[in-house]
């Protein structure tokens, strides 16, 4: 069985044996003239006999761009520069065919223009790439253009839903980047301010800037409010800066949207700066109130500080406009919105005018250009406090205008998009503790009473409540005005005797292009023509208009624009802020325990009550139409009860009375999952020429009868006839053709719950071997494994580039690909995961991954995924919920903790909290994750990162995980990142583990066997595991290098590297090559 593997291995070794390693005098590419100027004709050469593109390539193309900004951010050349046959590669490159001018020497002429100051390129033949060992080739033309500097604020906002580190985690924070040579100590941020914000303003080049924040001196993290990265392997945050071309005002006080009472005196101050590109300020800046004439402001030209005292008496929204002119006649302005209202009149919030531009560039379709420009919100008590009066004003309300209002009792933890409106904007999860309502003109042709002006009182399951009566003159007065009975709100949010959060944003519905009841903003109107760019134009309750643009830009294919906190789209209002009569007098109650999807029917519910005297608290559990009461007596502060959940949604709330006044808490929802599908148990045996498949030990959780359906895999070596395929016990006669014969089993109970399982029997020339759980399939022992880091495998990082390269991978003899993590996460390496069911955005789509698997299988190549379930990212929603709600989070116990309740982690991996494998729900969660990738994409195996971690914390997990996967796909390959000398990992856990002894731990190993000849006896002792044979069907993974280790070519000569590779391929075990190793990559 090892013969084919050996032959393929020798084929791959030949690749190493025939390659030559270039010296300083041997370059794969060069250009003439050697020192070009902008406008020169440049000839680029490529020697395929030195480079990594196969010499058999019939066509080599130059993949190129110009005028790089930051690291790897090319600019697409103008079409006038494209050589004949060029094809654009959006968004930043072109591919142009080269000409083979002599054997293996290719050339291409490019006519640059006067604006070309850099040219960058790599080569491809359509499948293979040569990117100069991941460095690209860079041509500098003449002197680089003068760099203009500008001011830029670097802000780390701990309130962000995407912030890895909160206030309690931060002792210090700095910013490092291209502007300071990545010095992690000399650019500190000040703070935190009262909002938990750290910031600094720096003078930096007005170009593309790469940067990261550094927490506590050593924790490098991306900007949580900037989803853009520089494309490098480090995943640095990236911002494109442009110079200010007009005079501008900054550090303006008071803040935008401040509310004063009539007659209040206040100073207006600002710092005036000239443009980055022009002359200084001319004359005196002015200040203007509303439509009154502008007057000179008090101004110090030395410091640039403007200040002016004001007293306003007229109630309403006022605009204070600051204006300044430079000596070139360029004028810069800043308009500060100020509200003047009596505080006793209710709650007023105002918003800047003309900030309805989404992330900064949104324009309107055929509707009015102000149709989503929010101006103010006014909340007040009505009907003597029985109703909440709501007034939301816009610059213009049209038939297409939509405003989404959310009221809820908490923010933090999970964030969700609206169930009825596909706006691509997430807000704090309001299920069980809040409502949403979408406001629309009742006369709109797209008005739908089932979704507009009606309370959405539950997200999951989706339920609606009362319809609110929006005044019919909304379009005439540009105001949505309505009242909601407080009782209707308190039925969902609990008694209004504690703060409620309010959030409001605007969007459109009705123009051509509307989908999911929200107009999708296309590229012609400032969008991306993508399904994930937010459709919102404006939002209230933002600290300022700059933050609003930042938040509306904080999205990507794996990140949803999120309105997440106070000052970031929400405001927290106590009832007294709205009116003296709207608040309730009963005890204030809150369920502290957070609801969740769970498999644990017994839950402890903890709450708190604020009452003058001890009270009796009634806790209610509602399942469907049935309610169950519980009681806690003589409660003065906290209370606790244990509740037995029922299958499905369990709505839980608390009530208490004092002095004749009743108080009700917001509800929480536990959704209990109960496994009702049959449990498959298959025993495969062989006797007397007959293979028996016995599933009679299978059971149904509900004791129902089970129907059995056995089916032979159509790809078996030859057809087989199953006897009694609809019985618990099925047989077939052993076939003559050798190979593995797979049989699938479907079990279905009387309620149509279905379970699928699978087994096989291996037929040899002289015997038949039935599969048992602690065995591996035949392909495993013949495997040659090729590890790929998708981010560095190709210039575009795409999974599709791997798919395009499968023929080359197959030709080298590889039979399996190990993909480093492909899941979404904040780091370049992928081992910090925030979504175990998704695909990293810059790797492609789920469809791209499915195509890769299917095409790999067509080449007889298996796909093995890196599975990272020792830990999650600190940014994973489970951990974020635990950080937000502490021990009351259902996910608090999803993470391993020390005696003080701190989450544990290994080494310095602070952002990688260890999962708690003493919690059965963690088992359930990550067994489901693993099965998902097998059942959805038909992946062939997993390499389990830090497999030694769960084994050390709870050795019982891996056997259960192993059984769950082998039952649905017995041929699945399970590889542990653990030592192959510890046979515990081979005991119903994994098929293979890492041979660290041969790599670096043995007395003689691949790291120390050169330059002197190794002691062959000692080497043989290491290879044969010191005389302890590996268990049958289990193997050591042999490797020279991987993503954790140094490239071998950097440790040894070319000949030594070839010899080590030959050894790797000709000893027992599974050989593994790290992509690039086959052509001598050094990094």
How would the blueprint of this fold be written?
Layout: H1 3-18, E1 29-32, E2 41-47, E3 61-66, E4 87-89, E5 93-97, E6 99-102, E7 105-111, E8 118-124, E9 129-130, E10 137-140, E11 149-157, E12 173-177, E13 197-205, E14 208-215, E15 219-221, E16 237-240, E17 248-253, E18 259-260, E19 265-273, E20 281-289, E21 295-296, E22 298-300, E23 305-311, E24 316-326, E25 331-340, E26 347-350, E27 374-382, E28 387-394, E29 401-408, E30 415-416, E31 425-428, E32 434-439, E33 454-458, E34 463-467, H2 474-477, E35 479-485, H3 486-493, E36 500-508, E37 514-515, E38 518-519, E39 538-539, H4 545-552, E40 561-563, E41 565-566, E42 569-573, E43 588-591, E44 597-598, E45 602-610, E46 615-623, E47 626-635, E48 638-644, E49 648-658, E50 661-664, E51 668-672, E52 683-687, E53 690-694, E54 706-712, E55 729-733, E56 739-749, E57 754-763, E58 768-770, H5 778-781, E59 785-788, H6 790-793, H7 799-804, H8 806-811, E60 816-819, H9 846-858, E61 862-867, H10 877-885, H11 920-937, E62 941-944, H12 948-953, H13 957-968, E63 973-979, E64 992-994, H14 996-1001, H15 1016-1023, E65 1035-1039, ...
Parallel strand pairs: 18-25, 31-40, 41-42, 44-51, 59-60, 59-66, 60-61, 61-62, 62-63, 63-64, 64-65, 65-66
Antiparallel strand pairs: 1-2, 2-7, 3-5, 3-8, 4-5, 6-7, 8-9, 8-10, 11-13, 12-14, 14-15, 14-16, 17-19, 19-23, 20-21, 20-24, 22-23, 24-25, 26-27, 27-28, 28-35, 29-32, 29-36, 30-31, 33-34, 36-39, 36-42, 37-38, 43-45, 45-48, 46-47, 46-49, 49-50, 49-51, 52-53, 53-55, 54-56, 56-57, 57-58
Helix pairs in contact: 1-16, 11-13
């Amino acid at each position: 069985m090892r013969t084919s593997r050996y032959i393929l291995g020798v084929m791959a070794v030949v690749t190493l044996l025939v390659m030559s390693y270039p010296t300083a005098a041997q370059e794969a590419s060069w250009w003439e003239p050697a020192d070009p100027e902008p406008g020169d004709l440049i000839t680029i050469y490529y020697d395929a006999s030195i480079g990594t593109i196969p010499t058999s390539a019939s066509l080599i193309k130059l993949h190129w761009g110009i005028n790089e900004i930051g690291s790897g951010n090319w600019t697409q050349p103008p079409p006038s520069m494209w050589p004949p046959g060029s094809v654009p590669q959006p968004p930043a490159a072109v591919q142009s065919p080269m000409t083979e001018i002599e054997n293996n020497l290719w050339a291409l002429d490019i006519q640059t223009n006067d604006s070309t100051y850099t040219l960058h390129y790599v080569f491809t033949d359509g499948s293979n790439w040569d990117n100069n060992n991941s460095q690209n080739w860079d041509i500098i033309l003449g002197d680089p253009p003068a760099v203009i500097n500008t001011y830029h604020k670097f802000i780390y906002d701990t309130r962000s839903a995407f912030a890895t580190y909160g206030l309690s985690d931060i002792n210090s924070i700095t910013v490092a980047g291209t502007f300071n040579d990545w010095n992690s100590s000399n650019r500190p941020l000040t703070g935190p301010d009262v909002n938990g914000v750290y910031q600094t303003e720096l003078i930096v080049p007005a170009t593309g800037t790469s940067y990261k924040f550094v927490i506590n001196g050593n924790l490098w993290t991306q900007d949580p409010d900037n989803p853009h990265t520089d494309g490098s392997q480090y995943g640095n945050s990236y911002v494109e800066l442009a110079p200010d071309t007009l005079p501008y005002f900054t550090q303006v006080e008071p803040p935008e949207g401040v509310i004063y009472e009539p007659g209040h005196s206040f100073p207006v101050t600002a710092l005036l700066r000239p443009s980055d590109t022009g002359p200084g300020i001319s004359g005196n800046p002015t200040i203007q109130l509303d439509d009154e004439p502008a007057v000179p402001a008090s101004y110090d030209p030395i410091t640039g500080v403007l200040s002016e005292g004001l007293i306003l008496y007229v109630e309403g929204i006022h605009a204070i406009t600051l204006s300044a002119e430079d000596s070139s006649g360029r004028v810069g302005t800043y308009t500060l919105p100020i509200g003047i209202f009596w505080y006793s009149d209710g709650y007023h919030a105002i918003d800047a005018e003309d900030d309805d531009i989404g992330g900064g560039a949104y324009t309107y379709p055929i509707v009015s250009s102000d149709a989503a420009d929010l101006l103010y919100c006014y909340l007040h008590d009505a009907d003597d406090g029985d109703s909440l009066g709501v007034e939301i004003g816009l610059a213009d309300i049209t038939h297409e205008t939509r405003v989404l209002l959310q009221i809820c009792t908490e923010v933090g933890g999970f964030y969700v998009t609206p169930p009825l409106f596909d706006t691509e904007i997430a807000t704090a999860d309001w299920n069980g503790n809040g409502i949403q309502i979408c406001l629309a003109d009742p006369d709109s042709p797209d008005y739908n009473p089932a979704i507009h002006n009606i309370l959405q009182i539950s997200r999951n399951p989706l339920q609606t409540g009362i319809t609110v009566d929006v005044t019919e003159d909304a379009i005439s007065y540009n105001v949505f005005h309505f009242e909601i009975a407080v009782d209707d709100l308190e039925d969902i949010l609990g008694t209004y005797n504690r703060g409620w959060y309010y959030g409001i944003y605007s969007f459109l519905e009705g123009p051509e292009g509307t989908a999911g009841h929200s107009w999708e903003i296309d590229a012609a109107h400032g969008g991306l023509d993508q399904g994930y760019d937010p459709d919102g134009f404006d939002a209230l309750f933002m600290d300022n208009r700059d933050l609003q643009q930042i938040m509306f830009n904080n999205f990507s294919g794996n990140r949803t624009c999120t309105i997440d906190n106070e000052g970031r789209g929400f405001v927290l209002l106590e009832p007294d802020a709205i009116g003296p009569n709207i608040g309730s007098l009963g005890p204030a109650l809150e369920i502290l325990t957070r609801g969740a999807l769970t498999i644990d029917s017994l839950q402890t519910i903890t709450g708190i009550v604020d009452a003058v005297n001890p009270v009796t608290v009634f806790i209610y559990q509602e399942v469907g139409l049935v309610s169950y009461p519980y009681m806690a007596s003589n409660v003065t502060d906290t209370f606790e009860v244990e509740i037995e959940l029922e299958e499905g949604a369990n709505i839980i709330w608390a009530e208490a009375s004092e002095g004749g006044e009743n108080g009700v808490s917001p509800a929480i929802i536990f959704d209990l999952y109960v496994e009702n599908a049959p449990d498959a148990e298959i025993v495969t045996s062989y006797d007397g020429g007959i293979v028996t498949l016995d599933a009679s030990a299978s059971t149904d959780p509900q004791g129902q009868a089970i129907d059995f359906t056995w089916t032979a895999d159509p790809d078996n070596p030859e057809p087989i006839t199953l006897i009694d395929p609809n019985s618990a016990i099925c047989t077939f006669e052993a076939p003559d053709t050798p190979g593995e014969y797979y049989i699938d089993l479907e079990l279905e109970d009387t309620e149509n719950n279905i379970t699928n399982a699978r087994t096989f029997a291996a037929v040899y020339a002289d015997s038949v071997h039935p599969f048992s759980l602690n065995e591996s399939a035949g392909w495993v022992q013949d495997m040659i494994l090729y590890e790929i880091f998708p981010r560095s495998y190709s210039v575009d990082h795409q999974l599709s580039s791997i798919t395009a390269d499968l023929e080359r991978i197959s030709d080298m003899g590889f039979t399996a690909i190990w993909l480093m993590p492909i899941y979404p996460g904040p780091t370049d390496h992928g081992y910090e995961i925030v979504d175990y069911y998704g695909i990293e955005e810059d790797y492609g789509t789920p469809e791209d991954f499915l195509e890769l698997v299917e095409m790999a299988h067509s080449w007889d190549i298996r796909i093995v995924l890196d599975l990272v379930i020792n830990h999650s990212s600190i940014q994973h929603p489970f951990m974020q919920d635990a950080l937000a709600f502490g021990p009351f989070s259902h996910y608090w116990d999803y993470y391993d903790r020390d005696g003080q309740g701190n989450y544990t982690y290994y080494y310095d991996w602070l952002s990688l909290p260890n999962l708690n494998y003493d919690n059965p729900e963690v088992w359930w969660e990550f067994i489901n994750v693993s099965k998902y990738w097998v059942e959805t994409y038909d992946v062939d195996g997993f390499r389990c990162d830090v497999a030694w971690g769960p084994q050390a914390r709870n050795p019982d997990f891996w056997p259960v995980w192993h059984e769950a996967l082998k039952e649905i796909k017995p041929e699945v390959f399970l590889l542990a990142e653990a030592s192959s000398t510890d046979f515990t990992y081979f005991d119903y856990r994994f098929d293979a583990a890492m041979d660290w002894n041969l790599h670096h731990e043995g007395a003689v190993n691949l790291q120390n066997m050169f330059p002197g000849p190794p002691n062959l006896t000692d080497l043989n002792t290491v290879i044969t595991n010191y005389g302890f044979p590996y268990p049958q069907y289990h193997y050591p993974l042999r490797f020279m290098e991987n993503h954790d280790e140094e490239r071998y070519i950097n440790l040894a000569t070319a000949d030594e590297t070839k010899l080590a590779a030959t050894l790797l391929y000709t000893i027992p075990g599974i050989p593994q090559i790290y992509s690039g190793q086959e052509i001598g990559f050094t990094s």
